[in-house]
Specification:
Rossmann fold
Length: about 240
């Protein structure tokens, strides 16, 4: 099984609480802290642009509570609530929180909750090759009034052009052009096989030839990894490096 690394942010309007949880995260090898946020609104702006696995999230905050914020998160993002009010425990589990830490909590309690997250993400991220065998291996796309069956194994990368997508395939010098947005396409693709690295590109992970600084080379084509998508790409590289 590959090494599991969990990206996380801490959200709390109390600076002392932020610093305490930060110290706990730094002690935990599989957690990678990406940001500390003093409000749910600040965190909301961050996660819009930066995919995150896990939030350590306070509940009682002004303007936007942690419970309200948790309902706005992408379905793949998970939450561990941190709060001084135990009456929110039931509501926390209703929004599928992984755990609920009641302040004040020590590192042992924090680690127990973090380990729950590690187990959960291990099931999701764990054995990538085994997951791939269970996923669909083709898509039908409409092109020139025909429905073409595209083998995902043959795809090098997808290139977005406004409302259209170019599908670049192995051993095919010309791309297939289809009317679709990259956002809609991304939702249909297996996450273990394809990754969005730029607002205009989704790449086949297994067909990457070279990674050089902030660029990917696939079939002699250079594709830049933009800052917005770099954290998830760097996680992929780290999880598949010797």
């Amino acid at each position: 099984m590959s090494k599991i690394n969990i990206t996380c942010i801490i959200v709390d309007d109390e600076p002392m609480a932020l610093n305490l949880v930060e110290s706990y995260v730094e002690k935990t090898p599989f957690l990678q802290l990406k940001k500390k946020c003093g409000s749910a609104i600040e965190a909301l702006e961050y996660v819009k642009e930066n995919p995150i696995d896990l939030l350590f999230l306070d509940i009682q905050m002004p303007d936007l509570t942690g419970l309200e914020f948790s309902k706005m998160l992408p379905k793949e993002t998970r939450v561990i609530f941190t709060t001084a009010f135990n009456e929110y425990a039931l509501e926390g589990f209703k929004v599928q929180a992984l755990d609920y830490l009641l302040k004040p909590f020590d590192y042992a309690e924090f680690l127990a909750a973090a380990n729950k997250a590690h187990t959960w993400f291990g099931l999701i991220k764990g054995n990538i090759e085994q997951q791939i065998t269970k996923e669909k291996d083709f898509l039908f796309v409409k092109s020139e009034y025909k429905q073409l069956r595209i083998k995902l194994a043959d795809v090098l990368y997808f290139e977005g052009l406004k409302d259209y997508i170019k599908i670049w395939l192995k051993d095919n010098p010309k791309p297939i052009l289809t009317l679709m947005s990259l956002k809609n396409l991304q939702e249909e693709l297996p996450e273990t096989q394809f990754l969005r690295v730029h607002r205009s590109f989704i790449v086949s992970l297994k067909n990457i030839d070279v990674v050089e600084r902030s660029q990917i080379v696939i079939n002699k084509q250079r594709i830049t990894v933009s800052e917005q998508y770099k954290p998830k790409f760097l996680d992929f590289i780290q999880n598949n490096s010797l």
